[in-house]
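Worked example

This section walks through a single chain of length 123. The input is the sequence exactly as stored; nothing has been trimmed or padded.
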Amino acid sequence: MSGSTFALRDYRPGDEPEVRRIVTTVLTEYGLAPECGGVDADLEDIHASYIARGGAFRILEDGHGAIVGCGGLFPLDAEEAEIRKMYFLPAARGQPYIARTMSTEPRDQRPRLRLTQLSHGAG
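Given that input, the structure is written out below as tokens.
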């Protein structure tokens, strides 16, 4: 989707239904199903799962304000976080915003993130 405009923003309360839709769409594309009571349970309350724990959750929107991707930093301890829920719809793939989803810390998260190690989890 060349020429499209995308914008990154921080998670906002109420984003959960669209984030779950993105995750479900991408998992289905690869023949997988979401595990609402398991590895995907963190999507029920993104604020509690990521933000309140000192992590971050980013949203990628297209030029019309539709959510087309997401990604989170899930704190494992005070110095290590795991990249989780990094999913993008086909229209957003291959864009430089994907790499910046996690490399640019949200402004309100900077004081709390003091990571020395970043890992990629299975979820």
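What to look for: Residues 109-113 have pLDDT under 50 and may be disordered.
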